[in-house]
Amino acid sequence: MILEFAQWLQATALFTGLRGSAYLYPVVLSLHMVIIAFFGGMVLLTNLRLLGLSMSRYPAGAMLERFRLPKRYALIAMLVLGFLLFGCKAEEYYYNVWFRAKLILLLLIGVNYLIFRGSIYNNTAALDRAVPSSAKLAAALSLILWAGVVCAGRGIGYIEPPLDKIHAGLHSAPHAALYSRSGVRRLV
Amino acid sequence: MLIGNPLNSSELAFPVLECIHILAFAFSVGTAAIVDLRLIGIGMTDQSPSDLWKDTSLWTLLGLIVVVFSGLLLFSSDPDNYYLNYAFLLKMACLLLAVVHNYTAVRKAASGAATPANGRLVGSVALFFWACVVFGGIFIGFLNSTLDSRRV
Fold it and tell me: Could you give the dihedral angle defined by the CA atoms of residues B72, B74, B75 and B79, in that order, rounded to the nearest 10 degrees?
């Protein structure tokens, strides 16, 4: 069912057009990266504050409050731009092991947030007085998981599932396609 | 290639370096952007720009060092191909402008020497330069891409 959705999605007029456009696709990708910089800076600073490594003159709880909304806006922008990128090659991404890894890591970030939501993220008044070691654990996990998301995201471009062979039924085990290396399109 | 570069003998070296490059870029540009936005009047408005500069500059500098050195290594994997790429040349020009601007105009404005109007201009220009660096980096892979895919 997910595969059928992916096939339908990338066949829509929006994504057929975006995929075929020589400049629009890299522009969307660039914007995705620009937001990653904004978001990454905020994630780094807030987590370093919890770890006690930066912004020490600023109370930790106030720091979280201050960055909460900007981080959410940036996250939404990243997700929207990311969905536009996904839609262009939805079927390929479905088979792509790095894309799957990225989704799992994003899920784990959600779990990390939910676990510490009550005790840390929504308990900012207490954080202003003292930062408990559980907050440091949450911050370290957040940094590691976000770094993983970035690396998995870069990995996506290194894999190109052989859709033509899958469609022709030559790839009897679709999971083999997960690891097919692409003719790498080097960015950066 | 006349001289063997160890980067090209390992399949993993390039992508791992790319990940380090992207992470360091997010940290350096991201922390710099917080100061730039403050100069424009957005974000950490309850802190003075000079305090914010002091709190972020170490991380910005560390990120920049890692991003530049990982970038040099990436460049070394295929120098002539990068050199012939207009997006790469644009990226290098913007990077130079962005770094010089950050350590001259932004530093000065953050120290409190600028009027609010000047601060807004300095911050906006800085964000524009950084964004151009990112766009240049992405477009490297989209210009000359046939040459790339034939080689790898």
Answer: 140
The span from the CA of A12 to the CA of A88, in Å, is 9
Is B45 a residue whose pLDDT tops 50?
yes
* B152 with A37: Cβ contact below 8 A: no
B112: left (phi over 0), alpha (psi -120 to 50) or beta: left
Distance CA A116, CA A137 (A): 10
- How many angstroms separate the CA atoms of B62 and B81, rounded? 28
Distance from CA of B46 to the nearest CA of A (A): 10
ipTM: 0.87
Q: Which of A85, A77, A83 is nearest to A26 (CA)?
A: A85
The letter for the amino acid at B117 is: A
Q: For residue A45, give the nearest of B56, B137, B145 by CB distance.
A: B56
Q: What are B60-105's pLDDT values in tens digits? A: 999 999 999 999 999 998 888 888 889 999 999 999 999 999 999 9
| CB within 8 Å: A154 and B56 | no
Whether chain B has a CB inside 8 Å of the CB on A77: the answer is no
Domain residue ranges in chain B: 12-150
Q: What is the dihedral of CA B125, B72, A148, A81, to 10 degrees?
A: 40
Q: For A22, which DSSP code?
A: T
Q: Is A181 helix (H, G, I), strand (E, B) or coil?
A: strand
Beta-carbon count within 10 A of A84 CB: 18
Q: Which residues, in sequence order, are CB contacts of A157 under 8 Å at separation 6+?
A: A182, A184, A185, A187
